[in-house]
Fold these 3 entries.
Entry 1:
Amino acid sequence: MNKKKKNTLSQEMANNQQPNSSNKEVFEAIYKKNWFLALLIFIASFGMYANSISNDYALDDIMVYTGNKLVQSGMDGMSELWSKDFLYGYRGFQSLDLAGSRWRPLSLISFAIDVELWGNNPHWSHFMNVLLFAICCVLLFYFLSTQLFPKYKLGAFFAVLIFAALPIHTEVVANIKSRDEILCFFFLIIGLISIFKWDNIKGKLLFVVCIFLSLLAKENAVPLLAGLPLLLYYFKDQHYKKIAFETGLLLAVIGFYLFLRLQIIPMGKLEASKEILNNPFMHANAMQAFATKVYLLAYSIVIMLIPFKLSHDYSFQHFSYLDLSSTWFIISFIFLTSISVWSLLKLKNKNLYALGWGIFIILYSISTNFVIEIGTPLAERLLFLPSIALCFIIIAIYKKMDETKFQKPFQVILIVVFCIYGLLTFQRNQDWKNDDTLSLADYPKCPKSIRLANRVATAYINMSADSSLSASKKKELLNRSIAICKKALAVHPNYNDMLSNIGVAYSRMDSLDICESYWKNFERVDPGNPKLVELHHFLFVRMYNKGLMYGSIKPDSAYYWFNRALPYAKAEADANFWYDYAGANYMLGHFKEAADGFAKTLKLNPAKKEAEMGLMAASEKAGIPLK
């Protein structure tokens, strides 16, 4: 009887435990489903950047959005966006002071659609960036988990989570302008999925279309010419002739793109820029340039993995030139060379670590300044596409951990890294709120950067315009701006933006003479800059108003300021200015100049009877016969 009770009790315990076991199995089954993991990636990717949606325009958004006339035309500017240089709508000619030309119509067209749909609303544009980024992460997961690593879906899941959380991606997602990077990535991944998934005409056609669209977003897809055969070799059991054929398809697309690009827009100047901010190695000799570029390549890897002191700008003066004897060059060279040689030796065995390194070097090659000079020593946005390589490394480690039964601890480590990266990304998004917050956040990290110093000077000038501040606080902010400008101009005396800013700061302190001297230097350095129209207008209005302030009370002072305003008059001078100018001259006995001023007044406003009377009186005293 006791035995029967015991058996019954054991059976009840087993029945009680069965539902829990069943629930666990159901959960694991759902957890390992691609759609569920993809959903988690989408939520995580979108969530990390959700706080950037409330940000304003920042940095280069003025060039491609708010200040781009073609984009601001909405659908009406669409045809010209296809046929003009990337920044034609901003400056009306080639892309600033950079070598070559830039044909990237796709992102500009997306901005024009933004304008057409919701005008200049930065929040909708930020939302689109975040949405597209989240979709890109899902597509990357789909590509890795279904086409390359179907046996390691969880490995692919964790790899993409880390990729999505990398803080260096904030410049791409939180900056509206960098939608070109996102669109390039978006179409490139779809293209790769199609060539791997469908071994038929449909797959190849979709591949061709997507790669072409990727190139229309940005040229970053060009290095895939070397990356595609490597991926095909690793993951598709194909004869080398078939690999060559599919690589040939890619070559044909790139060739067609380059041909079309040269037909639509001119190549532009081929010589390097003479502005060091756009040609960072201008003052370096060949050995210094090589040593510095090697160090910057290693440094890029470091900040990708250890995101300390991230900045939107690493331009002139932040990095010093290195020599071949420099310790940092030697360390970087040994590190990079060792990994590269080891990877080459391991490629034959299809080693995943070697593949990860190869993909990184291939995709990043176009941005290292070794292949072409890109106008900047380093930019975080340029690591967006190459950082895919990190996914291969993580999956390789995950695979190794699975073989040695250390998979769970590795998953915990990856979750911790994801949380740290995600928190840093979430915080970094706040720096991208606007130009001022970004510059003030980054300047302490890169205090030697001349371009960043200029942006901080601008931030202080903008802050001084706050009407709620006291006069002493405004003066303090303007003095900070002037101090930063002077420090930077001592290093780079011909930096036109800095010359403009220091002039603005002095103008707000009512030091027009000093302001004018700096703006004359600006004009000497860059006589064709469209910003000069705005500066000349400002000087004209301020000097004219000072003349009016003195008027008939101090005609000599009025005359002085009217004459100071005269060189900036041009189209700004209306009938009122010439009438006041003539009046000041008449009061001082300059009758010939007075007659000339009254005549110009009447030319602009024939109905002004006072000018007609003044002309008669001044002409009579000057002995000039009236016509």
Entry 2:
Amino acid sequence: MERPPRKVKNDKLASQSLQESIGENDTPSDALVDDAVGIKSPTLVPSRYTPPPFGELFFLLEAFDHVGRHLFDSEWEGTEFEAAKVPDYKIKARDRLAAARAELTDIVEKSKELTTLQLRTTKDTDNRRNTETLQDLATASRALMNEIAALKPYEWGLDDELGRRERYEVTLKCVTNALADGSLRALYLPMTYIDRHSWISSAEFAIILPLSYVVRRRQKMAFRRKTVFVERNPFREWLARIEPINPGALEKLPPEIRARFVARKIVAAAPRPLKMDDFIKQLLEKVDDLSERAAQRIWGDKGTDMIVPQSWRAKGPKTHG
């Protein structure tokens, strides 16, 4: 008769058994990563792992929309997430339309010149030649006008489509780059952190924004698609460090946040390390509504908010970087 497995009564032994099954070098989030990333299935959930409450999460689509509004301010329409790539034939039609209009303008100018010349010419041979040329120009003009009329509908709303698509691509690149380099962490149900290198940088994955989905193109794992979230507070902290593209959006930000973007440019443009007084002087000149105390805070910031290199603040010889 087979003996039933012995129950583990000691909590310490149970914890040790759990850790061994996860792996000595794995963190709790590593143990939760799906087979999709080639590490482990989330079969064991350590008791110390606490997923964030649902109210502290943004759907991927929400995060995308917040980034777009931050970057483009009033230019953002809110429908960019469904902006399809503009077909090539529309671009070609627009280019041909511009060329046809230029050709028509040249024909009109030539016709005017020939008409004026014909009125001054008394020779019959010259008049006949000019008349034939004018007739040819009139025929070409009618053909171009018909072509322009046929191509005009492709021009309607094209600039709006191109602008919407451009905003979509810029915003999506901003989000995906942040997910790829770890500035943002994505989660999928059941609140499992996604290994950034496994899907953002892989051609086998696709993002479907309207559904906040990440989709695996090849069926090599347990799931085909997952709903993706980002944590609100880390997302807001990250977004505050992103400089808006629209100048109007930048002007609406508080002085100290605007000054941080200016400070990054000062540091990048400096040919050599600056002293504190010189740095603060430049910063106050470029952000006139910034207080000196706020400028000093920017100089002394450390950690993720650090803008001024630590070597600039160190005593002794200064190094750039």
Entry 3:
Amino acid sequence: MSDDRLFAVKMRAARAGEHISGAERVVPAHDIPALAAALAERALHHAKGNPDEIHLKAEVAGEIVHLEALPVSTHVTQTPEEGRAVAARLLAGAGITRIDEIMARFDETYAMRGAMLLDADTLERLEPDRARGVRATYMDAASPEKSRQARPSRTGGEDACKKNHFAEAVVLATKVANAPGIVGEICVSDDPDYVTGYVATKEIGYCRITTIKRKGDPCGGRIFLYRGPREKVAETIRFLQEQCVLVDCMPDCPPAPLAPAVAQERDPPAGGSGVSPLLDEALADELREAADQGLLRVCRVRPEGMISFASNDYQNLAADPRLKEAACAAIQRHGAGSGASRLVTGTLPEHARLERHLASFKGTEDAVVWATGYMANVGTISALVGKGDAVFSDALNHASIIDGCRLSRADVFVYRHGDMDDLARQLDASGPRRRKLVVSDAVFSMDGDLLDLPAFLAACRRAGAVSMIDEAHATGVLGATGRGLTEHFGCKPDIILGTLSKALGSEGGFVCASRIVCDYLRNRSRSFIFSTAPGPGAMAAADAALSILEAEPGRASALRAKAARFVAALNEAGVACATQSAIVPIPVGDERTACAVSAALECAGVLIPAIRYPTVARGAARLRAAVDIGKSDADLRRAAVLLSAALRMPT
């Protein structure tokens, strides 16, 4: 006779009465023997030492509640201090501000079997038994295919012996966050070999912090933060300790960037990554070296609720309802993607309409659109010049221009930043060529300064060279009506390149030029020919953005006025800086100092990224503030004051 009941199987291990390890699963009856053996094996091999007691218990699970897993984000930190600062910022959204005092309580949690339950405001301890704490139990992950039948994902004992910190933490955090009255949780693992912790609330989800304590530190535990009447505490504890929960829609473990502490957390998984161990080791060494120099970069989920100076959405059009409506309408007509390259069947009415609109907006005969601005630069430069030709590039040009020059196989001449005399000398020294192409940013993305376009064009004309500028940070920012550097100076190069992903609030890159140049690029630009066309939604959104700039011509001047007010506020606060665009650079120098200042600002609710090598030269790190039209004067003043204070912090 089969037994379809679910059982909660628990393991607790201790030495001399002191807690060492615990684990729990919810499994069908037939899996209990294998699971019990595996949990016992796990208890015998814990980093905190060998137990002298192992308790195993199996009991029928009561009524089961299904909860959807909290959303997951990873916040990469390189020191415990930085990790705790991130925890403080994340919990501030729940009105929890006494983080230093809360973190100090982890000295008391090491030997507790359960979690500490604190009043989030008074920090009064609320658990009935302070030695035992509150134990969140009766929980596991439900597999997607069995969740409707309330069946767990782990069947069998082998996996139970391999602790999955991430999965177990998400299950527990999900149950705790859904307990009545709980407004937040902080977890610092008591495993000396595991440096990662997390904070969690229903609002922000499960926020994994890669380094929150030092390796080898045995202190840790969990603190649940409660807000509500005292008479409801018992209900909260009952839910945590007695309600059986299965967590649905469990996320995969996010790819953890290999910061030094993270790389040493644990041995690599059995079977490896499928990549040569020698390659893994070599790459890990390079990543550790980058981290030691303050140069390790990671992708992270964009933090919410911040005063952000990190976006190039200068005109705040990315979330404009008019762009969203245009994108949705195009997707409804044609689908999410284009389905083919432009020269096959990927060209849709939205592509053709946008190219006509761009040409009209920039005052040229024609335009061509690519999937990204990077592809536009690489594809245009490598199509126009080749072996035996010469291409001339400003020393501070964007990486996409630099890569386009290198990939073209033309001889590359780099002239001093903004020095038109040096450009003229190099044009003369290059000798006769089939073609000479001179390329420059219109607004330099890390310094916010402008190309002297009249002098640039004069040098090109004297040498018979083709002129090309990239107006990525100029379109929608410069000129009386936002048409860019060409409108600002009243003159045009042979080729105008730009992006749809900054002031226009969409995605993609473009070239505006003569009809012959554009037809040539459609036939010779490899990044255009061999890439799937950008989707219709992005094209329609960009087209709508151009219409907004035309209908509201004062937006560009209003944006520049905002940037000027921010610079004035910074100067008043003692921070020396200047700008000619919407980009405000704040020089720092040392890479680690720049990261520390940026982290301090983030803890205060202001997002200004640190820019480091290789984006800028070594030792030339800076903060890069991008001003957008939506910033209030109060936001600008607050950011200026906080930035000034952060720069004065001891390093």
